[in-house]
């Protein structure tokens, strides 16, 4: 299978010549599920921003970011703007940063429908309602009329997902999308992501510091540290004992800290 | 498992505490006993009331009904003498050591600060060296600034500061949530070791039931301002009685056994 999105020897430097990302390479197949895991300072979020052409002022990316053979790093800003959102969509840790506080949720979801898909009026409204149902928002009518601050954290992240999926993107880049959520809400959003990947066939790149969360949704795994890729593997292989010592350390730390001490669980087995 | 000794006065006790903010009931009849020399975890998600309860236990806020007792005495924010004894004996450790350590103060001064403000007699410098050693830090760090340390080291410094006035209770509010996974375990082990070797009473407030499971003998689960479950941690984890506790446990992302 040829890769849908591939990052090839990506480097990011500051204007003072400091190297922040050093030769990062990975690829994501159509319908694939890639987890990018690393601790703070590993460069995992910077990688996501570089892929989207959203690096902060003063940083420069070299290498290649190929979406279906087109190098996004060489695209002019306007062409990149058409790719972003329409073909590669994103969700971040804090959905409020993606949502406009002065606009109702309904208008925010129909925004990209107008811009990228040319939908107007009732067609746009119907599609917004369909998207709201797709992300399992209940009471859709009320939510579409609400402002972001009137929603809970979980509802906001669902709205952000609905917006991200509005243009039927081929790649969904999610950077710590559940980190700010309560653990019970996190579980629901992870289930939702799982389900969305299955139903829409969107390829998922999931960035997080939290290996158990990544393991919950990803199949392939990129382990990053200090701006470099430590290991490219699969979640299953990493859990069975990764090649790199650092991967094994991360797995051990996750087991020690986030693993519940008592294996007995009265919750049903499907609580995975 | 030891059976509770009836005659022991709790170090801290919330008795049917309510705290309302306007029409919001943040705490609604919460009772919690903190036994001396024991560890207790208070678990809850956002809106559970755990932070409000923490503020009550530290006497940073007063209940609208019920009372909080320190060594059997009702806490009253006007009782200066009692508050002074509470401040010396019950020390907080907060989530983010970046914001709880003054960046302009050298570590030595940071750690000695409670000794100064509580007017603890004795050789402060010697005490600083002692508590830095107890959290696994070299005495020479005293001359450096917080910015020169990693998150895990900063949390060790914050713990050393809390230990400086020789409190009998540490109240830790999400002490590892802001740390990388690889250092979380070390800080958990440190707290565990300190509680065991120094006979400290530990109150841990966290959204993370797994961390509470690692550290605490007893667990209290808060939901919408009420205690929905309380008991020895092992039985709360293995045999949760309340539906919300079961939901909380099922939601913890776990690595499948590889």
TrEMBL record, chain A:
Location (main, coarse): membrane
Keywords: ATP-binding, Cell membrane, Membrane, Nucleotide-binding, Transport
Boundaries of every ABC transporter domain copy: 5-251
Subcellular location: Cell membrane
CDD domains: ABC_NikE_OppD_transporters
Gene Ontology CC terms: plasma membrane
Keyword field contains NAD: no
SMART domains: AAA
Name under which the protein is recorded: ABC transporter ATP-binding protein
Source species of the chain: Cellulomonas triticagri
From TrEMBL, chain B:
Single GO molecular function: ATP hydrolysis activity
CDD domains for this protein: ABC_NikE_OppD_transporters
Domain called ABC transporter: residue spans: 12-249
Signal peptide span: none
Family matches, as SMART domains: AAA
SUPFAM superfamilies given in the database record: P-loop containing nucleoside triphosphate hydrolases (SSF52540)
BP term (GO), one: transmembrane transport
Domain of life: Bacteria
Matches recorded under PROSITE patterns: ABC_TRANSPORTER_1, ABC_TRANSPORTER_2
Pfam family, one: ABC_tran
Keyword entries, A-Z: ATP-binding, Nucleotide-binding, Transport
Family membership: Belongs to the ABC transporter superfamily.
Protein name as annotated: ABC transporter ATP-binding protein
UniProt organism field: Cellulomonas triticagri
């Amino acid at each position: 299978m040829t890769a849908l999105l591939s990052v090839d020897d990506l480097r990011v430097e500051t204007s003072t010549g400091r190297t922040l990302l050093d030769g990062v390479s990975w690829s994501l197949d159509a319908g694939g599920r890639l987890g990018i895991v690393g601790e703070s300072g590993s460069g995992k979020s910077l990688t996501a921003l570089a892929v989207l052409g959203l690096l902060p002022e003063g940083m420069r990316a070299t290498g290649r970011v190929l979406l279906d053979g087109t190098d996004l790093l060489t695209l002019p800003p306007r062409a990149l703007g058409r790719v972003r959102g329409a073909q590669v969509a994103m969700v971040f840790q804090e959905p409020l940063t993606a949502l406009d506080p002065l606009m109702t949720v309904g208008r925010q979801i129909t925004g990209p429908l107008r811009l990228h898909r040319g939908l107007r009026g009732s067609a746009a409204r119907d599609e917004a309602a369909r998207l709201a149902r797709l992300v399992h928002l209940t009471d859709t009518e009320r939510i579409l009329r609400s402002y972001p601050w009137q929603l809970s954290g979980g509802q906001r992240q669902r709205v952000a997902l609905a917006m991200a999926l509005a243009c039927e993107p081929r790649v969904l880049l999610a950077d710590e999308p559940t980190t700010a959520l309560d653990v019970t809400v996190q579980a629901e959003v992870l289930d939702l992501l799982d389900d969305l990947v299955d139903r829409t066939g969107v390829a998922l790149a999931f960035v997080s510091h939290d290996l158990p969360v990544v393991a919950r949704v990803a199949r392939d795994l990129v382990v990053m540290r200090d701006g470099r890729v430590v290991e490219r593997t699969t979640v299953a292989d990493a859990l069975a004992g990764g090649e790199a010592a650092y991967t094994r350390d991360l797995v051990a730390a996750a087991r020690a800290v986030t693993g519940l001490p008592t294996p007995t669980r009265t919750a049903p087995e499907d609580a995975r | 498992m030891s059976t509770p000794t009836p005659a022991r006065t709790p170090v801290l006790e919330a008795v049917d505490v309510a705290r309302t903010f306007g029409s919001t009931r943040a705490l609604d009849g919460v009772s919690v006993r903190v036994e001396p020399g024991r560890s207790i975890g208070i678990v809850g998600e956002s809106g559970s009331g755990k932070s409000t309860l923490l503020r009550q236990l530290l006497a940073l806020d007063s209940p609208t009904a019920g009372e909080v007792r320190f060594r059997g005495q009702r806490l009253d924010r006007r009782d200066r003498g009692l508050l002074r004894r509470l401040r010396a004996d019950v020390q907080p450790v907060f989530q983010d050591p970046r914001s709880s350590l003054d960046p302009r103060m050298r570590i030595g001064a940071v750690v000695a600060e409670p000794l100064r403000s509580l007017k603890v007699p004795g050789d402060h410098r010697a005490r600083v060296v002692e508590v830095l050693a107890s959290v696994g830090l070299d005495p020479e760090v005293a001359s450096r600034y917080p910015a020169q340390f990693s998150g895990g080291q900063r949390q060790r410094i914050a713990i050393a500061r809390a230990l400086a006035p020789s409190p009998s209770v540490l109240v830790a509010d999400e002490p590892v949530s802001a740390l990388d996974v690889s250092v979380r375990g070390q800080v958990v082990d440190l707290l565990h070791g300190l509680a065991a070797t120094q006979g400290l009473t530990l109150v841990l407030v966290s959204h993370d039931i797994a961390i509470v499971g690692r550290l605490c003998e007893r667990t209290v689960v808060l939901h919408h301002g009420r205690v929905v479950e309380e008991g020895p941690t092992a039985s709360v984890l293995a045999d949760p009685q309340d539906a919300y506790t079961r939901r909380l446990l099922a939601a913890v992302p776990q690595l499948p056994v590889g």
